[in-house]
Specification:
alpha/beta; eight-stranded mixed β-sheet; five-stranded parallel β-sheet
Length: 369
């Protein structure tokens, strides 16, 4: 195992050129090591990897400087070529699948790290490799995988099938209600949502990003935040929905609460309006679960947000409120790294003119003290 600090994240479309360079290197090394028949005819082609990224099943392993050291495809679900095997799988339980693992060749032990990461996502992992791929056979056997027999890939050629079952480390981050693999994620801004979105995709959950923030003032601020969210979503191949900007309607909704302090009645009303709209859209789209990145902010009341979410779904019995506390599980640390990586615009106030005024007054007071 490598001693160099590395972490794994979902691949984004901007990574595609780097991934293809690593794939080309791996293809050359296969031929040089006597394995000339596994990745043939340019496989995996760029369109294959692009589709992996768009399906949120492509991952990269990178170092602290942001350099990609390895790439692979991982997903949970049935692999069609595994339905027939000459031999027998270790069980018939749900399993994870690892494909297209390739290393940049600069970091020893990175393949072990990637495979171990896959096992930690779900402790029942199936892999296949060509009979001539001595390196992969060695890695899998050293990690305790059992040879189960022979499967045949889409072009009809045989592959040696491996499987490993291991107890998973207890996941303490979260579980999606009812095991849903798609959620409507109400998103307030790119900095708050970045690590949450990454964590969801890494765990096989596809978020539809719902940008519903009529509270933000002025319009220029709204557009900057929306554009940053859009930039991040598009880099990951994810859908983002703009709920449109109706600040006047929002002002009407909080009328009489303009002088409430932060975490007061105005914030509670604001959360209620935005999450009710989120629940309505989820109902129309047939998305069963909603959650919000607001639950990541240390400046907001989690109790207020949770109450607003519960109230919002009462109007739509087919929609579930997922009141996940997104402050947990190291997401704040990962958020800081992604903000640096993308050079996100990072705002200084929550969004409305009343919070902007409060920040300005606090700053002015600090100057005079």
């Amino acid at each position: 195992m490598t001693d160099i600090p590395l972490y794994i994240r979902a691949a984004k479309l901007a990574d595609l050129p780097h991934i293809m360079l690593i794939v080309a290197r791996a293809r050359t090394l296969m031929v040089q090591s006597g394995n000339a028949h596994q990745w043939i005819n340019g496989y995996p082609q760029e369109e294959v990897v692009r589709e992996d990224i768009l399906q949120a099943r492509s991952f990269v392993c990178e170092n602290a400087d942001g350099n990609i050291e390895a790439t692979f495809c991982y997903f949970m679900g049935d692999e069609p070529t595994y339905s027939y095997i000459e031999g027998a799988w270790l069980n018939n339980e749900p399993y994870g699948v690892l494909h297209r693992l390739a290393s940049a060749g600069k970091c020893k032990g990175v393949a072990y790290l990637c495979i171990e990461w896959c096992l930690q996502q779900y402790g029942n992992l199936r892999v296949d490799t060509h009979a001539d791929n001595a390196v992969m056979h060695h890695v899998l056997q050293k990690m305790g995988f059992e040879c189960c027999g022979t499967i045949y890939v889409a072009n009809g050629t045989p592959r040696t099938a491996y499987q490993k079952i291991q107890a998973m480390k207890k996941k303490t981050l979260w579980e999606v209600p009812n095991g849903e693999n798609r959620v409507l994620l109400h998103t307030c801004c790119a900095p708050c949502s970045s690590a949450i979105i990454e964590s969801l995709t890494q765990n096989g959950v596809t978020p539809v990003i719902y940008y519903c923030n009529p509270n933000i003032y002025p319009l220029e601020e709204y557009l900057i935040r929306k554009n940053e969210c859009t930039r991040y979503a598009q880099s990951l191949g994810l859908e983002i929905v703009d709920a449109d900007y109706d600040h006047e309607a929002w002002l009407c909704g909080v009328r009489g609460l303009e002088h409430e302090p932060e975490r007061g009645g105005r914030c509670a009303r604001c959360f209620q309006m935005r999450l009710t709209e989120t629940a309505r859209y989820a109902h129309e789209r047939g998305i069963k679960v909603i959650t919000t990145t607001l639950m990541s902010s240390r400046w907001k009341s989690l109790e207020q947000i949770d109450h607003a979410g519960k109230q919002a779904v009462q109007h739509y019995p087919d929609v579930i409120w997922w009141g996940q506390n997104w402050r947990k599980g190291g997401l704040n640390e990962r958020r800081a790294a992604i903000i640096r990586e993308y050079n996100f615009y990072n705002q200084r106030y929550c969004g409305c003119e009343f919070s902007m005024r409060a920040v300005a007054e606090k700053t002015e007071t600090e100057k005079t003290e």
